[in-house]
Design a protein that fits this description.
Elements: H1 3-25, E1 26-28, E2 35-37, E3 50-51, E4 57-58, H2 80-83, E5 89-92, E6 95-100, E7 103-108, E8 115-118, E9 124-129, E10 132-136, E11 142-146, E12 153-156, E13 160-166, E14 169-174, E15 180-185, E16 192-193, E17 200-206, E18 209-214, E19 221-226, E20 233-236, E21 240-246, E22 249-254, E23 260-265, E24 272-273, E25 279-285, E26 288-293, E27 299-304, E28 311-317, E29 322-324, E30 327-331, E31 339-343, E32 350-351
Antiparallel strand pairs: 1-2, 3-4, 5-6, 6-7, 7-8, 9-10, 10-11, 11-12, 13-14, 14-15, 15-16, 17-18, 18-19, 19-20, 21-22, 22-23, 23-24, 25-26, 26-27, 27-28, 29-30, 30-31, 31-32
Length: 354
Amino acid sequence: MSKKLVILVCCAAFSLAILLAAAQVFRIDPGPAGLTNNSGRELSSESEDDETEDGSKNQSGNESSSLPLSDETEQRGNTAGNIVNVGTVAQSGDWHFISKGTSLYRMRANGKDRKRIVDGHYPSYVNVVGDWIYFRSVKEDIYKVRTDGKGLTFFSIDDGHYLNVVDDWIYYINKDDNERVYKIRTDGTDRKKLSDDENCQDINVADGWIYYTSKKNDKHHLYKMRTDGTGRIRFSDDYCAFPNVVDDWIYYSNFDDGRTIYKIRTDGTGREKINNDESLALNISDGWIYYSNQSDEKRIYKIRTDGTGKEMICDEKSWAICVVDNWVYSKQGTPVSPMYRVKTDGTGYELLTF
């Protein structure tokens, strides 16, 4: 055997030895799992699923997913309907976050794993985005806290009402500045006044527009402007309350017509009456309008957005209706009354205790 051939054989043997050694650490799995190590666990650049305190799994250590997207571009901390009803309930994944009395609680949709996460703030306008909850405190400031109750942090000195957390921004009414519309990033930067209109209420943020009413400039007439403050338009002469912007429609209680429910397109056309009840606390969800029927002792009713299918779902008096999942939350007549919930089909009534 020539010297050159001996060298080639030795090199091949050395390379084979390296491959055999590597095979003890990694082995090729022809299945879909791809590359695995000795333990059989799939190797991945993504983080492992973590467990919450009650053992439930969720990705990357996050307790729960954010509220489902309202469309392909917006991630919201709560629905517009809940916010115009004081935002006492918000949803994130399987968790419901509930403001009751001085405290903020969380529990699963099935009522289990109840826990107080904030106390002493009488939270309102609750928004949940990722691992953070944003809310207005009775201390007349905006606060944030992690969804597990840790990291309670003062966020803004503004007395913010009607908080709408959309993507990386918080839109709100600044009561410290004659109730004008403001926005601030969720990292606390770029605070900006968006309009000189005073005594504004009922902010809805949808598809790059802010919808609101102004009781200073007009008698609660409906306005809209772009989220940068430009393009301000008044497009309704009705006295509007509890406006809900859903898809291309705005639903509201028309105080100029006995507080009955109306709808109008977001371009100002198609104005139409929905019902004849004196209706407050409007909240639209999945094609239904839920409302406190003042014509029937403030009981909770629902009616389809086309005006059909009216029915009572709860004979309790109601105040500030919030809807998450298939649950309707309210209180027995006043803000300080006990809180209850009932399923959207009228079953499963429960008086909430924590």
